[in-house]
Amino acid sequence: MIDKIFGVFSKVFGTKSDRDLKKIQPYVDQIKSFESELQQISDDELKGRTEKFKKMISESTVELDKQIRDLKAQINDMDSNLTIDERRELSEELDKIDQEWLDTVEDVLDEIMPEAFAVLKETCRRFLGKSWVVAGNEIVWEMVPYDVQLIGAVTLHQGKIAEMKTGEGKTLVAIFPAYLNALVGRGVHVITVNNYLAKRDAEWNAPIFQFHGLKVDCIDLYEPNSEKRREAYRADITYGTNNEFGFDYLRDNMVVSEDQLVQRGHHYSIVDEVDSVLIDEARTPLIISGPVPQDNQSQKYTELKPRVYNLVEMQKKLVAKYLMQVDEALKNNDEETAGLYLLRAKRGFPKNKKFEKLMQEPDMQKLLQKTEYFYLQDNARNMPIVDEDMYYAVDLKLNTLEMTDKGRDLITGNNEDPEFFVIPDMGVETSIIEEEIARKDREELEAIENNEKFSADYKEQQKAKHAEDIRREKSERMQALYRKFSEKSERIHSVNQLLKAYTLFERDDEYIVQDGKVQIVDEHTGRVMSGRRYSDGLHQAIEAKENVKVEGSTQTYATITLQNYFRMYHKLAGMTGTAVTEESEFFEIYKLEVIEIPTNRPIARDDMEDLVFRTKREKFNASINKIKEYHEKGQPVLVGTTSVEVSETVSRMLQRAGIPHNVLNAKQHQRESEIVAHAGKRGAVTIATNMAGRGTDIKISQEVKDLGGLAILGTERHDSRRIDLQLRGRSGRQGDPGESQFYVSLEDELMKLFGSDRITSIMDKMNFAEGEVIQHPWVTKSLERAQSKVEQNNFSIRKRQLEYDDVLNNQRKVVYARRRHALLGDRLSGDIYNMLYELIESIVEDHYRDAEYEAIQEKMLRMLATDAQIDREKWSGLGQDGLVEMLVNHCLEVYKNKTRILSEPFYRILKQIQEGDVPNKPTSVQVIFNDGVKRMRVVVDVETALQNEGKELVHAMERAAVLSVIDDKWMEHLRELDSVKEGIGLRAFGQKDPLLEYKREAFNMFTELVAEINQEVISMIWKAMPEGANDQQQLTREKAPVKRKIDMSKLRTQHDEMPNMAMQFGGGQQQGQQGVAAGGQQKKPEPVVVGEKIGRNDPCPCGSGKKYKQCHGQNA
Q1: pLDDT tens column, 169-217
Q2: What is the pTM of this model?
Q3: How far apart are CA 248 and CA 229, in angstroms?
Q4: Radius of gyration of the chain (CA)
Q5: In sequence order, which residues have a C-beta less than 8 Å from that of residue 546 and are 6 or more positions away?
Q6: Residues whose CB is less than 8 angstroms from the CB of residue 1023 and which lie 6 or more positions away in sequence, other chains included
Q7: Which of 14, 315, 414, 598 could form a disulfide with 18 if both were Cys (CB 3.0 to 4.6 A apart)?
Q8: Are the C-beta atoms of residues 393 and 387 closer than 8 Å to each other?
């Protein structure tokens, strides 16, 4: 009924697609209007149009460029007398002008777009018949865009998604907006789903771009962090895979010098197969991690595996027994008992084959639902009756497992503590310790007080000694309790993850084992997600289960989801064959509108109604018979499956039937292009997971077209309509003939979720014989409605995940912005000013109200090495804000004096060296700074230091200090945030929203993080001074290259006078003057020894009850 109503509205007002095309068509007409003119000009004149466009863009931003330079100079000038508010206003003004610059450029691009697209179309025409090598094969250029491809090109330039069917030439469409936006000079990124397509498309389109003087490259050709990859990003148009772009962004936020940066910004991106990248793969975050020192968690999975394996086997036997008891109870007409055992089977081992078969019977489904409803009443008060007889219980909805007392008894050894797998109740245990300590305290104090032999002074001494003993004993007992809690928590966590691995994860379904490694298979694409690992120890548990090497635990150094990575681009566009079904998600998350582009020729493919069978066996037998029929006829067929396991099952059946075929799944990913190229040949049979080979067209000959074209046979409906449409879209390219049909059974996952009981009832009433099928448009529509419900649920899940990641993303933006300012020296002075102001504001706020002026003075001296002379009358009269302003100005004066003291003599030394008659003058100088706690190596560029009269020494020190502190604190913050996120879901049991709780905790942690960064950075900058050059060994060390904070090779694809300075020169001959390093041997790196360390959030050993970081670790 709703479809009919929408149909009437569409006839009257037109569809959204019609309205979109009506807006774009005038641009196409304008593009075509330039054709005759451009065909008359020479190649050089055609190339000259590109230079004309660049000049128009450059001239439009001349004034804005000047304003941006002037504002940056004002913000970075620490000598100016600007107030904090004035500096913030300048920063806001700079942001506005940056946006105005982008808006101005977009206006110019819109103005020149028709002519620019016409220029590129004429270039394509002139290249007809030319050939070059692409992906190892010689190709002949035969492409000049159709009108519908120009519509797609305009759509992409406008920052929208162009939905274009398979074979409609998306690769060609993308070159038009890529060319136009590359003229801005800030780079264009073209994203593909795999590295084969990235390399192929770069080689295919390069000659067209190079004709106009544009450089093209592909990042997937080069190793990460290499100079070649850095050059690839400097190209005008850069191709690559989504993962590599994301990982390079994270790596860039871990480098310690500007010359180590790889990317240069995020201006404009075109994402091919946008639904795969921005929806399917965006769910899992990109993580750069490294090894955890002294990790013993990995070993625990191997040690506990035999116990858990035995536990699972006992549970399987128990579930098999329950299912036998179900049959017996039903024979005795005891539905209540049968329902109980059925529910136990579901909660005991839901993937039991007999249980899954029983669930195809409508009566069994109703009985289970009725029983489950009974035991879930009153907040599941009676559920323990169900679970107590089992070893553990599985909750599929929450994806959790919980061991019962029976299970704990089974895995606990005979000679082990009965509480070996029981976590102590911290509240109870803490209360016991406090009561015992308090009782002991009272008794011993009474004994001291009542001892008549002790003098009064001796009693006081004994009381003081007793107080220290009590404090120490309490601290030791609490530490022992925390260690016990931590050990048991880790042990139980390892057991639970092993149980999940055995009970909920199946090989060749969720993952495969290849080359001795557990590789995750994406449920949507069917591709191996290389480098991805299940989090929270689950991957290690699966490795232990599969008897492969258990990789060590890792700690997160940097992380981002693809959703948040691509939202950083100024302008984002995408293209795919299927996006309309996810249109609302694209708009809500990315603000991307979907435009349906018509096909150049009408689609001739015959999409037949689904065939519904009772069982999987009937379905597969019918599928094999149909495949055999296609093969004998000579018509190629592509058999779509939803998992690796099903593809291999079909392959075995075809082998028994003697039908030659190819299999394309996660295990055969390397042969993708070869298999896809053969899939359109006469008589070819290709089994593929639903999206395998996507991005490469299956081309067919005229002979195959005469036989009916490529046939698509789907062996199961996917959860998402989009995935099924992609499978159908492999056939019918550019008006080719073809056909598609899905074979479905009532045992399929989607059918089990929706409607299989109703269809089974119909089959029973109509006395369907084995092998008979239901085929009707209503059934197909019903399946598509079921898919729509699953899509809505999946969207809700992805949206919820994004809300969690947005919390971290907002924090990441702040931290990475500060880090980048430090790395580039851009706005760094403003950041330091803000940090100083916030630090002094917090100091004054803590003590001003109670007139604790001495405390303010003491903190200023300790943190900033600045003595603020107390004038009580003046300080009181200034008020809190006035005092903050006065202290900030005082600190700035001290710092300006320090800058002068350091820079003037440093400049004189460099000038003498440069003016001296010496060969190979140095290009950089190394100076060691020390703030009394940490040593910091600073590399100073000689040329810059000479230009700003030595101030570069202080600027380099500032950059090094900010980077050092941010990196340490940020990684620690990520670890703490991971810990919070792991357990936040449990707060739902306390009637609290986990997301709100997570936001609150994360905000408090981030506020604390910012305060700590401010304090440590400002303290280091104000206190740090160059070390003296008295140590002869230090003076003779050779200058080493600047080291990264983190070893990238181990990452997976986280005063009045100048002090004596120990300077080391690089880039030329070592100078043998005082304070200048002569030659010498580079010191061999020493191994890092990690001792036992008190965590910042652990209880302080002093027994105060406070966290270590808020007590004795405050200044550590």
Answers
A1: 889 999 999 999 999 999 999 999 888 889 999 999 999 999 999 999 9
A2: 0.74
A3: 10
A4: 35
A5: 507, 513, 518
A6: 864, 865, 931, 932
A7: 14
A8: yes
